[in-house]
């Protein structure tokens, strides 16, 4: 009975419970409790028990829960002085290693050949397909960041960032010791006045169609055009972000795509950033 009760408690409450006696500490060693809490708080609980996401390799669900919900984010560890604010968007699944990134709430009808690399695709279409992302559970956050050494005359001074990472990233030694760094994939320039800053990440999986359709049906979730507050939308296999730009003086939008790779293994992508800047 207590195992089922514990599944409905938050991490802080579970920690307090474990401090009351040894029996509760032994109870909370049950990984199923932490798995349930982890997936529940990322809105990833399956509709049936036989469809739970696979357990990440070499990680306990308790460690994963702590890393995901201790308040830490990637800007704490790098460039923290530029960081202005953040909030959690949610969790999503990569069932295949193929990830589609876009600087719009639309899927391009065509992309250059994969062998041309992501930079050409990003410059031409504002989107790219990445073939070597680490499958599993990913976590998406929204950030506001100060513009570093801006050279664009009419920059508003604030960048919008959608940051997505594999749930194991904060437990990786390569991340903590600075071995893994973000690499630039490419920039997309929209040279016309734009009313919105939007971006999205999709898993190119046979099970992702419903999530992609939900994200692309933007009228059902974006804010009214006179509301400048950012709005995120997260589904099981996709995540998106949209901000309405009220200023009529912008001359366009630049979207920068970055990725972090596991350089100690097979080069799998473990984190993505899409940064958008008005000019």
UniProtKB/TrEMBL annotation:
Please list the coiled coil stretches: none
Q: Which GO terms describe its biological process?
A: reproductive system development
What's this protein's name?
Answer: F-box domain-containing protein
Q: Which InterPro entries match?
A: F-box-like_dom_sf
A cellular component term, taken from the record's GO annotations:
nucleus
Please name the taxonomic classification of the source.
Eukaryota, Viridiplantae, Streptophyta, Embryophyta, Tracheophyta
Domain of life of the organism encoding this protein: Eukaryota
User: Which SUPFAM superfamilies does this entry report, sorted A to Z?
Assistant: F-box domain (SSF81383)
Native species? Oryza brachyantha (malo sina)
């Amino acid at each position: 009975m207590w195992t089922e009760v514990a599944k409905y408690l938050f991490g802080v409450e579970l920690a307090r419970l474990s401090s009351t006696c040894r029996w509760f500490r032994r109870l909370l060693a049950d990984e199923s409790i932490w798995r349930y809490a982890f997936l529940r708080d990322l809105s990833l609980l399956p509709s049936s028990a036989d469809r739970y996401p696979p357990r990440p390799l070499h990680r306990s669900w308790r460690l994963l829960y702590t890393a995901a919900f201790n308040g830490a984010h990637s800007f704490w560890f790098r460039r923290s002085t530029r960081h202005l604010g953040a909030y959690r968007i949610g969790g999503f699944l990569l069932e295949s290693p193929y990830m589609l990134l876009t600087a719009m709430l639309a899927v391009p009808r065509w992309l250059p050949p994969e062998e041309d690399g992501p930079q050409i695709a990003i410059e031409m279409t504002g989107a790219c397909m990445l073939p070597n992302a680490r499958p599993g559970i990913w976590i998406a956050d929204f950030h506001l960041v100060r513009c570093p050494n801006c050279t664009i005359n009419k920059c508003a001074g604030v960048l919008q960032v959608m940051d997505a990472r594999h749930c194991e990233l904060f437990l990786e030694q390569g991340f903590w010791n600075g071995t893994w760094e973000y690499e630039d994939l490419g920039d997309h320039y929209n040279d016309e006045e734009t009313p919105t800053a939007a971006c999205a990440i999709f898993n190119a999986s046979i099970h992702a169609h419903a999530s992609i359709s939900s994200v692309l049906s933007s009228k059902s979730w974006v804010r009214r055009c006179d509301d400048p507050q950012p709005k995120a939308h997260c589904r099981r296999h996709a995540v998106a972000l949209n901000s309405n730009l009220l200023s009529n003086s912008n001359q366009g939008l630049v979207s920068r795509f970055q990725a972090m790779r596991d350089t100690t293994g097979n080069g799998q992508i473990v984190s993505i950033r899409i940064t958008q800047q008005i000019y």
